[in-house]
Amino acid sequence: MSTITGHNYIGGQRSAAGTVIIKSIDASTGEQLPYSFHQATVEEVDHAANAAAIAYPAYRSLSAAKRAEFLDAIADELDTLDDDFVALVCRETALPAARIQGERGRTSGQMRLFAKVLRRGDFYGARIDQALPERKPLPRPDLRQYRIGLGPVAVFGASNFPLAFSTAGGDTASALAAGCPVVFKAHSGHMATAELVAGALIRAAEKTGMPAGVFNMIYGGGVGEALVTHPSIQAVGFTGSLKGGRALCDMAAARPQPIPVFAEMSSINPVIVLPQALEARADSVALDLTASVVQGCGQFCTNPGLVIGIRSPQFSAFVQQVARLIGDQPAQTMLNAGTLRSYGQGLQKLLAHPGIEHLAGNAQLGNQAQPQLFKADVNLLIDGDEVLQEEVFGPTTVFVEVADQAQLSAALHGLHGQLTATIIGEPADFEQFGELTALLEQKVGRILLNGYPTGVEVCDSMVHGGPYPATSDARGTSVGTLAIDRFLRPVCFQNFPDALLPDALKDANPLGIARLVNGVSSRDSQ
Amino acid sequence: MSTITGHNYIGGQRSAAGTVIIKSIDASTGEQLPYSFHQATVEEVDHAANAAAIAYPAYRSLSAAKRAEFLDAIADELDTLDDDFVALVCRETALPAARIQGERGRTSGQMRLFAKVLRRGDFYGARIDQALPERKPLPRPDLRQYRIGLGPVAVFGASNFPLAFSTAGGDTASALAAGCPVVFKAHSGHMATAELVAGALIRAAEKTGMPAGVFNMIYGGGVGEALVTHPSIQAVGFTGSLKGGRALCDMAAARPQPIPVFAEMSSINPVIVLPQALEARADSVALDLTASVVQGCGQFCTNPGLVIGIRSPQFSAFVQQVARLIGDQPAQTMLNAGTLRSYGQGLQKLLAHPGIEHLAGNAQLGNQAQPQLFKADVNLLIDGDEVLQEEVFGPTTVFVEVADQAQLSAALHGLHGQLTATIIGEPADFEQFGELTALLEQKVGRILLNGYPTGVEVCDSMVHGGPYPATSDARGTSVGTLAIDRFLRPVCFQNFPDALLPDALKDANPLGIARLVNGVSSRDSQ
């Protein structure tokens, strides 16, 4: 394993100009790890953003095939991060080794998937309208469009995915794929992990001849504002809290030149348990739902934080069953002390609310998170009480009982935007509750039938996004190949001779990509 | 021609609750026209936004084919707007009849093009990743993605295109195509025009059985804030000034739920005249450029406001030639008194600046706009002086002479974001100035070779967008079929039985659209 120096990565060099030292913490013991990280100074933030801006013209001009080589090389380097690395990530996050091994594979797989997107070429969005010199009353000029990267992207890593949503995670992968250099702000919860992953990225950049500054990483608290307001930064990717994400959005919107922010923030991921499913398989639903609630100590953006069912003896029995299961779940160590503190505060709000009843779970004490179950009055949803809309990050969920189908609709209408919604049902349920899909489509980015929202597949069809406050822009996703769209913009060429056009738009179609030619999709040369 | 009542269109009804009356003005004489418009009250703005929100679930659930019928019916109704209508538009805008006739055709053509997009189906962005139940270590669920409309869209019409960028213009067409009901805020410069076009839209909605509230229109000043901050509004389209557009962006970003705004605002559309072109055809370039500057009284977003050339006797002669031509151009009537006032103020700023020389044009007096020509010191661009970055809306342009190729690059680097850039050159120029395309790509939405930026083709490949301040979001366009993307968001279905999926994602591909299936583009059934 490489030595951890705690220096920032700026323009292909290491930099440690600052005197503020931050320590990484063992998440299980709370002890300091033997690494010292130099918080980036304002000048270093400036240098990092400028390094990315200097790299941008060269990097974006590389062929997509060359950028794909870089992403594949990153994937290969990630795969070589060994057991010592996994052990270090586990120390910083208290996540189990199997999870980190899986996440490492997911992260390198994600890079390879974006390499595939680059070779496939549909990200170009290539469109050609050939000249119509004889058209009356006016001739049509030759017009061609493709998409290029926006420019340097600032990425803020998540606490809960030290690999897949961090240094070399989905935001970085999609930005690099789009041709955008990255300035990554390491999360304070796993800075040693970030350093080793950044080392892998830099090795891959050097091996494949990328411009210095294609990837930069800075440490520290309070550096986010300097980064987001830097004139060279052209877009922001963020995964974290509503408060943090909204603050970045507000800063970005108030810049002299506003820039787009994709912030993935807050979701309670409702699960709707329908009557026939309870009739047919209440036991297995109770087991699977409980497992999803406590999986990874509930530290997932898609953790099911709300379960809705229709009043019946079966639903009452189901609630009791889940209460028993939750009561039996062991306490788990959270990602860091701040996360545990937030969990405790979230539970306090639920416990203190007169419309919410505590159903199961040991008192929240000590340095681990106790799984908890609550039941809330449906009117809290219908009347728009904020208490149920706020994500409580951790191993807890809230049951809501509705009187009937009409009240179910009313309750769902009361929800804010979500990453996911899940329907647990049998065919007879789907027939009876046919309106649910259309209603949920307006609220969420992903609807699941008979599954659980934790576990987000990285593929072309995934949407890890949704209406506010799930994200800051429902048009994007931070997981899956569509994530690249956030960092691309169209450019049109009018009346260009073939030789001066980018390869994606040349008559001969040298890249062999699908293009919309005179309104018809085609892979042919023209 | 229908009677003009001056009542707002809200939820399929006419509404005139307010007591503030606004008059439409004859742009040529300054006299009031015999129509009285009722400024919408805050309650009426609320009703209009709510009417759109109520229409949304029904409207978005219609098949794309049904929405295409609606757009085609709008186009047919627009085509029936007769000579009396054209005469009225001319009175309100002082634009010539031939231009309005052309714009009518462009506006109905735009509607038909979006109908074609709906039938083509690529706007769905359909993606399918089939289940891999045997995959290790975890099976992959079935995942499918398509795109739906964001919700009600607020559209602010432009002064300078009373048809193509107004009531039934590109923003309205793309929003309606996306499945988004519209609340249109009529421009004070052509309210009678707006009423007649809105009547055409409503007739088309009734004929094709659209839900009431699919299109709403309100009159008045100061109603924009109530509209943009209304919780039902989910996106904004705007064409107008930097000040107005930025104000809407700031309001939208400060909402409890921020929403996307596409504002097309300010562009000076540089034209770069290269040496060999001057050698070969200075006369025709001077004629064509002058025509583009004064066309339509210079009242185009893409009006060439900056012309850059390299110091040489030929360039000096060319400047003199354009100066003579501009000096010969007649004064023209502008769209309205406010536009003329702004033009005068813009000229005053140029005249007062010590780094800018006045080359041609009669003193700006009376009620018409006098074409003007200026020459500015290149250091104003290089040093980032704001005076050249600000669009002066009207028949004027500014020449800038650079010392050499390096200074040309420096000057272009100094530019803010633009809708367009134009290169006038011969093949030998393109060879010598090969770096220009890559440089301009970073600054603009559309690059033209040997053409003029005025005249924006409506087609798949057009980009009428660009980096700030040309627009508020470089990822969008307000002309061309890609405009629909601004109002769409992806939704993912996980593990849905075929019968419950939208048609766009069903195995049999009943719509016959192109889809990305397991990473491969296909029109097949699965």
Give an overview of the whole structure.
2 copies of one chain form a homodimer. Chain A has 526 residues and is an alpha/beta fold. Chain A has 2 domains: 8-265 and 477-486, Aldehyde Dehydrogenase, Chain A, domain 1, CATH 3.40.605.10; 270-449, Aldehyde Dehydrogenase, Chain A, domain 2 (3-Layer(aba) Sandwich), CATH 3.40.309.10. Helices cover 37% and strands 19% of the residues of chain A. Chain A has 15 helices and 21 strands. The first copy, chain A, has helices at residues 42-61, 64-80, 83-93, 97-120, 170-178, 191-207, 224-228, 242-254, 275-294, 313-328, 337-352, 379-382, 405-413, 427-432, 436-441, and strands at residues 8-10, 13-15, 21-25, 32-38, 127-129, 143-149, 153-156, 182-185, 215-218, 235-239, 261-264, 270-273, 306-310, 356-360, 372-376, 396-402, 418-424, 444-449, 488-494, 515-517, 520-522. A 7-stranded mixed beta sheet of chain A has the order 14-15-16-13-12-17-18, sandwiched between helices. Chain A has a 5-stranded mixed beta sheet with strand order 19-6-5-20-21, with no helix packed on it. Chain A has a 5-stranded parallel beta sheet with strand order 9-8-7-10-11, sandwiched between helices. The longest helix of chain A is centred in the first third of the chain and has 24 residues, at 97-120. The model of chain A has no long low-confidence stretch (mean pLDDT 97).
